[in-house]
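Hi again,

Forgot to attach this to my earlier email, sorry! This is the prediction with zinc ion bound. I've pasted everything inline since the attachment limit keeps bouncing my files.
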Amino acid sequence: MKPKFKDFYPVISIDSQTIQIGDEPNNAYEITDPDGILIKIIPLLNGKLDTKQIFNLIEERTFSFLELENIIKTLDEIGLIEDSSIDNLKDLNDWQRVRYNNNLNYFNVFSNTNKTKSSYQKKLLETKVLVLGMGGLGSNLLMQLSGLGIGHIKFLDCDEVELKNLNRQVLYSERYIGQPKTKVGFERLSDFNTTINYEMIDKRISSAEDLENIITKDLDFVFCAADNPPMLINSWVNELCVKNNVPFISGGVGLTCGSFYSVKPTISPCLECYYTFIKDQFGQVLDAYDNSNNDYNAAILPNISLVASMMTTDFLRIHLQIAEPISLGKKVIVNFLTSETTFENPWVNNSQCEVCSIEKSMATNLFPK
Ligand SMILES: [Zn+2]
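Structure tokens for the complex follow:
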């Protein structure tokens, strides 16, 4: 191994005893270094020397070779070291290295000597997702997923582009008014990223059965950005995703706040667990939807982009395991008036859940349809 200190982290001397590595409030490490050992070692972690060579180059050593190995191991565990003796971009071709350069720089924050930055991008290139709904949320999600380089993206909608969509639906433009969103989206996205395998489905969803051949086991993730019929579509997505063991995230935008939540089958409670918990209110909520003006849409682009971005970011946390997800089994509320994020109580796993309980899945296996 030829350890290389990630030199995008500044090393700051706080006082004669202490150094700080990194300058971002959520990603900085204050380390006691009374003998100035780290100050001597870090410049030698240049990716050109192995540990033995580094050890031999340090004058007036006050530590053993084993101690040096442990210091480097600790820096690696914190995520401050990469290994220059291996090609950190070996999974990608020249074009991908340039197109996804900034993605790679971001993923490098999470890399270590065992996990290269390109392994994260490679995983995205091999990922297959489905986006349900190509309105404001869906079109923002699709642009973001394409920028990330998700290898295979299926998307579904049944509407045509209208003039009133264009305040927020970034996939379309005025010349496409009257054309199917799926067709226009396919053209726009294929032009934006020529290497992604896009698949369009022009279909109205009116029941769980309508999703049977769409939410399938080969998917890695589902984004639900459809809101019609309210609540029921989320139930159907939940049912099919749990059945096929596919994680999903679902979001929506209201007047002054947006929200989203995610489900990872067998890991988090499912949406039905939550609905069972609130079943006394469920009918009233549906009635309230029926009696309210469902067409009153106050979604503006900054608000809807904010929710879409938070959903995509949480997808990265869940799928790449780069940080703790914030929406698994609970609803995240984004306040548009303050930009504050709050959380509803985490859902409780219901052992009798009609959709996700073990008893239910065993019954399904014993008596297949
Ligand atoms: Zn459940």
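The CA atoms of residues 131 and 142 lie 7 Å apart. Residues 301-320 form the longest helix (20 residues).

That should be everything now.

G.
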